[in-house]
Amino acid sequence: MYLSIPEVFYCKVRYVRQDKLDINYSLFVRENGYKNIKIGAVLPCEKVVRWNKVKAAMEKEARIKGINIRVEFCNWDINKEIEIIKGFILEKIDVLVLTSIKLKNGNEVLNEVHNAGIKIIAMDAFIYDSPVDLFVGFNMLKAGQLQGSFLTKKVPEGRYIILEGSPNGEMFKIGAMEYIRPLVYTGKIQVVADEEVQNWLPENAYEIVKKVLFKDKNIDAILAPVDKIAGGAIEALMEENLQGKVIVTGQDAEPEAIKRIMEGTQAMTLLNDFVKLGQITIDLSINLIEGKSINYDYMINNGKVDVISVLIDPILIDKENVFNKINELEEQ
After folding, report:
1. Tens of pLDDT along 59-90?
2. Can you give the pLDDT at residue 167?
3. In terms of domains, do 69 and 126 share one?
4. Burial annotation 126-137 (CB, 10 A radius, 16+ → b, else e)
5. Does 8 map to a domain?
6. Please, is 36 exposed, middle or buried when counting C-beta atoms within 10 Å of its C-beta (0-12, 13-18, 19+)?
7. Has residue 1 been placed in a domain?
8. Are 95 and 291 in contact (CB under 8 A)?
9. Got the DSSP string for 34-46?
């Protein structure tokens, strides 16, 4: 018995994004690939969603390209950060990727890294007075500008609380104050509190705002650099039934922040593509090792050297576009 073969037949095709497939891409890397490149990375805290996204993205991109990588968390401990870096020196890595928790002074260990012939990439936090080869991160100045512009449009006159993340939150504040300060000078805005939120912890933001509200509940706006700080501030507002009545900014597009925007208790957040940050960092590491040219946005002097800087702009999310951005968040 013979079966005829049809001239035409159909089959269903489904397209899937490559980064959604769980495939060991290193099997497909060309023999000479990048298997001899070793990257060591130190990130601030494993309890923060953004850093876990960056870690996963870096490891995945490194696996795709056949690169050896080890990512460690220092959990806001400068001594542990230094210990990890010294361990990487002994391992003779090729590139150190560092989101340092101490950006000024006390970076002597980076001189040791440089003297060992290891390339240094500062990721997401600019490092001063050190032999850094490259900075890659989000445009923190732009982020602050977006927050400041948003606040002053929503509340052109009123009483503000300014919250600054510490450490490393200066650039956000500088950008925001470009819009806020002129209105302070003209008397339209009064800053009733200007405080640092240590370690960016929501409980510290909560205590600051609670203390302000205990003395004076007449608050119109809160500049919160990130969503976790916004969450702490909003918790304090809720205790005084002021949620939704005070305009609060944020950043990171965390699920809790998106929920608060939908509920009307947080006015905006900023979407930073942490997956893209991790992927770009691996690509830039390869370019540094191979001596290839790098397309950069700025050359920034850190007090010691001019640092090639590659910046990613954040995207503003508020009640007007939040539903359109949900799919983008889910893809991350």
Report:
1. 999 999 999 999 999 998 999 999 999 999 99
2. 81
3. yes
4. bbbebbbbbbbb
5. no
6. exposed
7. no
8. no
9. STT-EEEEEES-T
Domain shared by 118 and 189, yes or no: no
Provide the residue count of the chain.
332
- Do 306 and 323 lie in one domain? The reply is no
Q: What is the largest CA-CA distance in the chain?
A: 95
- Per-residue pLDDT of 249-287, as tens digits, reads 999 899 999 999 999 999 999 998 888 999 999 999 999
Q: Do 98 and 183 fall within a single domain?
A: no
**DSSP class of 8:** -
Q: Burial level of 5, CB count in 10 A (0-12/13-18/19+)? A: exposed
Residue 329 CA to residue 158 CA, distance in Å, equals 33
Are residues 116 and 245 both part of a single domain?
no
Asked if residue 289 is part of any domain, the answer here is yes
Looking up residue 157, the CATH number of its domain turns out to be 3.40.50.2300
Separation of alpha carbons 242 and 222, rounded Å: 12
Continuous segment of H or E residues that includes residue 166: strand 158-166
Q: What pLDDT score was predicted for residue 108?
A: 86
**Residue written as token pair 């702490």:** 232
Q: Is the pLDDT of residue 6 over 90?
A: no
What domain count does the chain have? 2
What per-residue confidence (pLDDT) applies to 105? 57
The DSSP line for 15-33 is ---GGGS---GGGGS-TTS
pTM of the complete model: 0.72
Residues 289 and 235 in one domain: no
Pairing of strands 221-223, 189-198: unpaired
pLDDT value at position 29? 47
| CA distances in angstroms from 194 to 102, 159, 163, listed in the order given | 22, 12, 6
C-alpha–C-alpha distance, residues 137 and 121, integer Å: 10
Is residue 149 pLDDT above 60, yes or no? yes
Domain span at residue 54 reads 18-132+273-312
State which of 27-31, 137-141, 159-163 shows the largest mean pLDDT.
159-163
